[in-house]
Design goal:
The protein is an alpha/beta fold. The chain has one domain. The protein contains 4 helices and 3 strands, in the order E-H-E-H-E-H-H. A 3-stranded parallel β-sheet has the order 1-2-3. The longest helix has 18 residues. The chain is elongated and about 45 Å long. It starts with a strand and ends with a helix.
């Protein structure tokens, strides 16, 4: 059977958060299966994502932030290095919560 399953983006909204919580609380995930979730590299979203995983036997957090030049300039208003630092900081936060 499957050993890893992408189950949602729990910090994106209540529906995904509730789904992740329900499959953990109901014991729907075998102990030898790793669930994976997605989150943006923002502290409050990482925290919410980690909250959704409480009680999971095994979990992987996939972290992302946009890196396109236009996105860096318009949304982050930062340089390539500053946007890279967002990813590094996000990764550190995930590891602190682990």
């Amino acid at each position: 059977g499957y050993k890893e399953i992408e189950v949602g983006f729990p910090s994106s909204g209540e529906t995904d958060f509730a789904f992740v919580r329900s499959i953990i609380e109901e014991g729907a995930i075998p102990e030898d299966v790793t669930i994976s979730v997605l989150t943006q590299a923002r502290e409050e979203l990482i925290e919410r994502t980690v909250e959704s995983l409480v009680g999971a036997h095994r979990a992987t957090v996939h972290l992302y932030n946009a890196t396109a030049p236009t996105f860096r300039r318009v949304v982050f208003r930062g340089s390539r290095e500053e946007v890279k630092q967002i990813a590094v900081d996000g990764t550190r936060l995930v590891m602190e919560y682990a």
